[in-house]
Amino acid sequence: xxxxxxxxxxxxxxxxxxxxxxxxxxxxxxxxxxxxxxxxxxxxxxxxxxxxxxxxxxxxxxxxxxxxxxxxxxxxxxxxxxxxxxxxxxxxxxxxxxxxxxxxxxxxxxxxxxxxxxxxxxxxxxxxxxxxxxxxxxxxxxxxxxxxxxxxxxxxxxxxxxxxxxxxxxxxxxxxxxxxxxxxxxxxxxxxxxxxxxxxxxxxxxxxxxxxxxxxxxxxxxxxxxxxxxxxxxxxxxxxxxxxxxxxxxxxxxxxxxxxxxxxxxxxxxxxxxxxxxxxxxxxxxxxxxxxxxxxxx
Amino acid sequence: xxxxxxxxxxxxxxxxxxxxxxxxxxxxxxxxxxxxxxxxxxxxxxxxxxxxxxxxxxxxxxxxxxxxxxxxxxxxxxxxxxxxxxxxxxxxxxxxxxxxxxxxxxxxxxxxxxxxxxxxxxxxxxxxxxxxxxxxxxxxxxxxxxxxxxxxxxxxxxxxxxxxxxxxxxxxxxxxxxxxxxxxxxxxxxxxxxxxxxxxxxxxxxxxxxxxxxxxxxxxxxxxxxxxxxxxxxxxxxxxxxxxxxxxxxxxxxxxxxx
Amino acid sequence: xxxxxxxxxxxxxxxxxxxxxxxxxxxxxxxxxxxxxxxxxxxxxxxxxxxxxxxxxxxxxxxxxxxxxxxxxxxxxxxxxxxxxxxxxxxxxxxxxxxxxxxxxxxxxxxxxxxxxxxxxxxxxxxxxxxxxxxxxxxxxxxxxxxxxxxxxxxxxxxxxxxxxxxxxxxxxxxxxxxxxxxxxxxxxxxxxxxxxxxxxxxxxxxxxxxxxxxxxxxxxxxxxxxxxxxxxxxxxxxxxxxxxxxxxxxxxxxxxxxxxxxxxxxxxxxxxxxxxxxxxxxxxxxxxxxxxxxxxxxxxxxxxxxxxxxxxxxxxxxxxxxxxxxxxxxxxx
Lengths: 298, 259, 334
Description:
- The complex is a heterotrimer.
- Chain A is mainly α.
- Chain A has 10 helices and no strands.
- Chain A folds into 2 domains: 1-43; 44-297, Orthogonal Bundle (MetI-like fold), CATH 1.10.3720.
- In chain A, helix 3 (63-94) crosses helix 6 and helix 6 (137-162) packs across helix 8 (178-207).
- The longest helix of chain A has 42 residues, at 2-43.
- The radius of gyration of chain A is 24 Å and the shape is globular.
- Helix content of chain B is 36%, strand content 25%.
- Chain B is an alpha/beta fold.
- In chain B, helix 3 packs across helix 4, helix 3 (108-118) packs parallel to helix 6 (157-169) and helix 4 (124-137) packs across helix 6.
- Chain B has a domain at 9-104 and 174-255: P-loop containing nucleotide triphosphate hydrolases (Rossmann fold, 3-Layer(aba) Sandwich).
- Chain B has helices spanning 50-57, 87-93, 108-118, 124-137, 141-144, 157-169, 187-202, 214-220, 238-243, 248-255, and strands at 9-20, 24-35, 39-43, 68-75, 78-79, 94-97, 175-179, 206-210, 223-228, 231-237.
- Chain B is globular.
- Chain C has a domain at 104-333: MetI-like fold.
- The termini of chain C are far apart.
- In chain C, 46% of the residues are buried.
- Chains in contact: A-B, A-C, B-C.
């Protein structure tokens, strides 16, 4: 009977779909477990975390790379957040319904679809070559900023639009300008969502490598934390020096394939990378949960 | 404090109409006058243009893209539809209360102090005084005087709406527009708001209320205007409108045949 | 006792008719409010300018990117005189060698085919899983989907591509080698890694598309006596088809542009991909490896920029396709 067939199909379909769902969860668990377990021996070894990388010998560490990853992240967020905030506010509050706005929206959409290697190569052309900064932290930070802007603009835009229009109406009806309404009423209300979004974008930036290979470079000069001469190569805060990050390090040692303990160093670096990103995700989730709890309590 | 002033026209409209998207007519040819110290009610079935008309008076319709306002709106004798009009100054003198209470996500104190501070009032003493006066004028001070710095969202619906009224009064307007202010409130809170309307009028403020509730209009207002399908059909003293309506559409509305 | 009006004297409207507008006995316009009235316009203009500047800067950067990549990419044909057909259809990529006529061997066809091959194969592999997951999340177990699956997908999308490349190198390649023979590198390994990488993207978008199907469609189908799977197959999926296609195209965009993860498992031999299990190359893999080795301005470097230009052009094509699907979908609905 047709109905019998339909029922069997329904049951098979449900079983298959459930299997897919379970498989996906297992896959994720397996991936994370594999990375952390393989890298655990190195990732929790302090000498690995603070040691210098080795070009040819074994026993290399990731000290400079670890610092570089965080420093680059900090600079990228410092530059990209205000820029994205301004752009998002413009799109939400001021953008007139004309070709200029359409152009802007298209530009941001194009930027979000471009492969990160292309963004990195543009950074190479503009910052490293044309501006003459060479492989440097600032070149990398600006490339990462371009990579991060579409993500942040979308997050901030959504956060602002989620604040009810009645709040904006109330502000305007009190004689406030759109700018004041945005800054004093909408932004504070949207802040938890914005902060969550920024932290999640930090996770993406932290793991990005393709955009950095040809901007921040693949070399990690030894860092002397007692050196405060910002023009010296060994000063950690010098933004004109090349700076290999954790992600780039993984790629580089595997593509060179020279270091004897290649697998262990890669696995350890990958584990550190993943743990940091999971931490970012966790913090973002906690902030978001605390914010919604505060809202519900009011 | 009683102000014995002769009521004079504060705000009036001449043949005002509104077009959405530059072609969809929501309102046409409305000519009305509103005097100080009075409560005027705008009644009519939903969707007949009452709120649209109200939002012309403080030019809130300007914030909607592609919304066209026709005709003249005179405030203190000056046409405010002219482009040179300072929108921000206008909205300090013409306040608005919305259908659903919309306090800011801050403390009660901050809700009231935010706009005056942005308009140039500094100094804790001046602001403290302002907050107390506004809350008193909105008949809310006694209920919240011990928790001024707690969140406005902890208040009840009726209290939140009175907070919104206080927020508007803090800027010392002479016209207060109220768009169905009691639609989200229970009957007791509604009566409290109506009392506040009367006390505002007693202090010389011109109060213009859009309401769905005929009994409210009859109770609380001095003059009433009836809107139907985007036109202002009939207006006059409230007592006369309800006891002796001239227009057939108004009669039908009052007896419940339409709307 | 001072009244409200003396605490805050409202300003006169601009160009006020002072004869008839003595509002109340105010203490005269104070300095603060006169300054307040002027600076309100300034505040609004300043706000518009600052945010407008951010937007203009971003747009300029994107324009500069497109321009500079195009400029360097087109130099291969304009300055170095390579012919476009020989570039796009040439089957040998060995820029440091020249052919009989002295032109460097810059045939990009192997990489173009390689990129398309991994993109198409990875999306083919991921399709059943992504749609299956999406159906599961929306139709079968929304609670579990929201609490477990969606956070899991969010985590998956957050894992860096290098790490996926590393997993590909240490797990996928040896596994493929064990049953397919050869080196284990190649299009299949690349597609497998890419499939896992684009799974979250395609799933999330497909979930949105399926969730957007109005419940009235489903209720109508159940009302006719159909079972759940029949409803899903014949009503929901058909209605969500444009959205699902968009999800796939966006997954392809990500796969096409992925550089490091692919480069680590593809084998990096610039030969026309003849089999799934032989080392080959993609546009991104050659770019990643080659750019550092060539001096700018040489024909070899220009050829690499032409590869970048193809990459960029394909991204724009993908965006265009997504827009066209969106427009067609809107026409069907409207």
